[in-house]
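Let us work through a complete example step by step.
Step 1: write down the sequence.
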Amino acid sequence: MSNVTYGSGSEITPHELGEFYARLKHDLAAKPEQIRKMMSQSAAFVTARADGRLIGVARGVADGLRGYLTECKLDAEYQGPAALSRTDGRIEHDAFGIARELARRVLEKMRDQGVQRIDVVAWGTEVDFLEELGFRKRGGWVGMSMRAEDLHALAAAPVGVSAGSASSGFAATAG
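Step 2: predict the structure and record it as tokens.
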């Protein structure tokens, strides 16, 4: 096992992170300026390197009350033999504790920023790892996502509903 070092994210460039995502076959193709913005708007960002090579990242976002562990990615080569699907850096196994250390540093930083609750959405292969960190399944929650390019479905309000009407569930009041 190579010597693993951890960084605050300040040493990584958007280009290097983009190359890391490409190497892991991450499903979001982002431009360098999008990656730069993502990095600067993260409440916590941690990197892991083996012999200078980027092998893992974890980051979280926070609004002052709630935080979200938005990603914890580790090169499958450093997860151990139980990493079977090797899909976009998802944590399937953490034989050397690298992913755990990445996540711990992000979670502690968000806690130190005053966050009271931290949420995460997990792929099926990540559930065991996240439960080992202390996350628990919450009844009634359903993970959902959409791509921004699919927002065209919201272009027009349904017939009979106008913005701000009581029937929409959002009523405007003068204050």
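Step 3: interpret the result. The chain has one domain: 4-145.
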